[in-house]
Design goal:
CATH class of the largest domain: Alpha Beta
Number of helices: 16
Strand content: 5-15%
Distance between the termini: 44 Å
Largest sheet: 9 strands, mixed
Low-confidence stretches: 1-12, 14-25
Radius of gyration: 21 Å
Structural class: alpha/beta
Helix content: 40-55%
Order of helices and strands: HEHEHEHEHHEHHHEHEHEHEHHHH
CATH architecture of the largest domain: 3-Layer(aba) Sandwich
Amino acid sequence: MRYAFVAASVFALAACQGQSGGGASAARDQIRAVGSSTVYPFAQEAVGLFTQTNPGMKAPIIESTGTGAGMKLFCAGVGSQHPDIENASRRMKKSEFDQCQANGVKDVVEVQIGLDGLAFAEAKEGPGLSLTTKQVYEALAANPYGKGENKAKTWKDVDPSLPAVAISVFGPPSTSGTRDSLAELVLTAGCESDPAMKALKGSDEARHKQLCTQVREDGAYVDAGENDNLIVQKLSANPQAVGIFGFSFLDANRATLKDIPLNGIEATYDAVANGTYPGARPLYIYVKKAHVAAVPGLKAYVEAIAKNWNPDGALAKRGMVVAPEDVRKTNSDVVTNLTVMTGADLK
């Protein structure tokens, strides 16, 4: 009966592929996940946990594509040519959910696995910056407050209290969830320090988004790709520069990097966990329920994550900030029951 079930499951995935226009190639016997570079090390940690408890099964394949690019791959369809899991350093957008639905990805399970912080850092020998969301916005916005092209060359040009050091920021690309978090948690917060910009959201949301989140393209902000470790390396080679990446990368590299406080608050584990740090954000995985019965070990892999996201778990030891107890309980139930999201509260 067990082998008949597995055979039926593989056939079901192949059938799903055929329905989605993917042809009749063989179904997979290996889990495939795409998405966030921030979630990547935790997803990889879970691979080890999964293989330890599921001997004989192939190790899941984890691809660091960035959250946005991963969402496109995840929502492209159901079937063996499409990934089973999307790792995300932000929540799925309404537009992405709608794209999933349009492509037949009807039953999506959303799981918040923990927390992270959008960290700002510099080399140990750096200038010792301490920034506000307003200063970051005025340094990086393409058209600050709609008053014209950003001409600031140094941090001192932004605010006289800051050093006369050239604005040089290595950060995530537009396909990254970290870039989305930068836009939402930092740039928009800084932009809306101006009452006129805050009011603009109600009268012209598209214009508000453009002015508040569009980053300058004159070289002050450098798209450093999806590999956050590369940004860490660039800071060592450019001590005057600023790097933006997930908190776990800062925490793992404190021997060579130092935190740049944001609004006077340092990026510490406790500040991220209790939400006082301005760049705190939840981390997610999204799972195709249609693939659970068809891809061997898929639910067991997700359960390996859930079993290890507690304060004494392997994911916390790897650097992930643990979510509050009530959040962990709610999401453990989601994993157990494979509860499908409705998308009703997405933005």
